[in-house]
């Protein structure tokens, strides 16, 4: 709940969560409590007979939590929040179009829209339970917010986070008159996960100082990316070379905010550390490092602003600010599913002086000689994207002049091949 507030997905008094444990008891957030500081001792318990134990009044929204859990015995967590973009969709009484990002859509599942009723009433509980009975795991509450169900609180949080990110992309695209595109083969991304699971394992040895440093740095940059809203809880991938034929990479399905160095996975000569599963990007990163001896770091993420260029046909204009042109050079697009199914093609596309690629309906790839450069390029791409959209709300975008471009090329690109 504190994290929900910290990530801007609810106000101080808004939002509530219920978790059902193995014994069937339900644990519920209290009513009218500061969500930034709510503590474990304030969580209420509701036993199977409906007896309530706790120091504070139970959440006024508990009726719909109870009804959803009664309706869906396969769910253990009910999560309610008021993320700003989702609330915008709730005013329009429609759901975000998750199909523009297939990996998000598959994780979240179907989203229904529940009819409005006064908060805290059995009428609202009935409206929400009806939608969950229909098979959805998330419901936009008309003129209110969102309810998400899952097997765990963490999973419900991630689903809500992905819906909010997609909602922000859709609002940004539509407010700038852009129509999004859909991938021809939305399942194409799944191939990478299958390949990673087929990687051979090896028994790890005592880590070197360089490996320990790489693990620490991977966690540092993944954590920063999450805090800066450049990636989600599970969808940012970061890798750093250790030796000529080994690198450390973020693990699959581990929280980017709380990830620890031991969670990271060492890939050595195409084999993965025993007992650990790396991110799906492991084979792509392996191919990039094998192809380019001068590249030591690679990352993939899906920041909201730059992703608008990935879900629409609009090309990204790098020549609008010196930093963007200098850092990114260009920002080509590759088709959805390319990195999962043709890593050699992607490795042939990137190099130190052509370091970023945008994959349609998926993510941005950034590579570099250092983790700082790669991360900076990610930030520059997303910041510039947002500034482009902002500028067009107040006037026509004016790109850099030919002379300005020549000056940048003379200063930063001279002598390059």
Automatic annotation (TrEMBL):
InterPro entries found in the cross-reference section: Aldolase_class_II_sugar_metab (IPR050197), Aldolase_II/adducin_N (IPR001303), Aldolase_II/adducin_N_sf (IPR036409)
UniProt biased composition (Polar residues): 7-16
Pfam families: Aldolase_II (PF00596)
A cellular-component GO term for this protein: cytosol
SMART domains noted in UniProt: Aldolase_II (SM01007)
Domain Class II aldolase/adducin N-terminal: 1-171, 216-389
Endpoints of the signal sequence: none
Keywords noted in UniProt: Lyase, Metal-binding
Matches recorded under Gene3D superfamilies: Class II aldolase/adducin N-terminal domain (3.40.225.10)
Cited SUPFAM superfamilies: AraD/HMP-PK domain-like (SSF53639)
Region annotated Disordered, chain positions: 1-23
Lineage: superkingdom: Bacteria
Protein name per the record: Class II aldolase/adducin family protein
Record-level GO BP terms: pentose catabolic process
MF GO annotations: aldehyde-lyase activity; metal ion binding
PANTHER family the record matches: 3-OXO-TETRONATE 4-PHOSPHATE DECARBOXYLASE-RELATED, FUCULOSE PHOSPHATE ALDOLASE
């Amino acid at each position: 709940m504190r994290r929900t507030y910290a990530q801007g997905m609810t106000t101080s008094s808004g939002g509530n969560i219920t978790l059902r444990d193995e014994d069937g008891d339900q644990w519920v957030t209290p009513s009218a409590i500061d969500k930034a500081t709510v503590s474990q001792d304030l969580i209420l318990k509701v036993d199977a007979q409906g007896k309530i134990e706790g120091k504070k009044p139970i959440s006024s929204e508990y009726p719909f939590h109870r009804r959803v859990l009664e309706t869906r015995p396969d769910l253990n967590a009910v999560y309610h929040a008021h993320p700003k973009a989702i609330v915008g969709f709730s005013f329009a009484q429609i759901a975000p179009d998750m199909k523009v990002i297939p990996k998000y859509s598959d994780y979240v599942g179907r989203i229904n829209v529940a009819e409005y009723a006064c908060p805290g009433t059995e009428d609202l509980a009935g409206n929400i339970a009806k939608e969950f009975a229909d098979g959805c795991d998330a419901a936009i509450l008309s003129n209110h917010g969102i309810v998400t169900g899952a097997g765990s609180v963490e999973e419900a949080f991630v689903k809500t986070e992905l819906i909010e990110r997609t909602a922000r992309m859709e609002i940004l695209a539509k407010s700038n008159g852009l129509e999004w595109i859909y991938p021809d083969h939305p399942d194409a991304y799944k191939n990478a996960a299958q390949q990673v699971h087929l990687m051979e394992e090896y028994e790890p040895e005592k880590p070197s100082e360089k490996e320990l440093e790489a693990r620490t740095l991977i966690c540092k940059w993944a954590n920063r990316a999450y805090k800066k809203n450049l990636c989600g809880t599970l969808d940012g991938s970061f890798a750093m070379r250790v030796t000529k034929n080994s690198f450390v990479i973020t693990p699959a399905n581990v929280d980017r905010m709380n990830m620890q160095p031991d969670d990271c996975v060492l890939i050595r000569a195409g084999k993965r550390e025993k007992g650990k599963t790396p991110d799906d990007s492991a084979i792509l990163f392996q191919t990039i490092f094998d192809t380019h001896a001068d590249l030591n770091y690679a990352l993939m993420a899906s920041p909201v602003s730059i992703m608008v260029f990935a879900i629409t046909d609009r090309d990204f204009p790098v020549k609008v600010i010196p930093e963007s042109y200098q850092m990114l050079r260009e920002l080509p697009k590759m088709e959805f599913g390319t990195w999962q199914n043709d890593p050699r093609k992607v490795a042939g596309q990137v190099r130190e002086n052509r370091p970023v690629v945008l994959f349609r309906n998926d993510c941005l790839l950034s590579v570099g000689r250092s983790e700082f450069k790669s991360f900076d390029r990610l930030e520059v791409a997303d910041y510039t994207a947002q500034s482009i959209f902002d500028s067009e709300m107040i006037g026509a975008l004016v790109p850099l002049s030919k002379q300005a471009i020549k000056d940048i090329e003379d200063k930063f690109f001279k002598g390059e091949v």
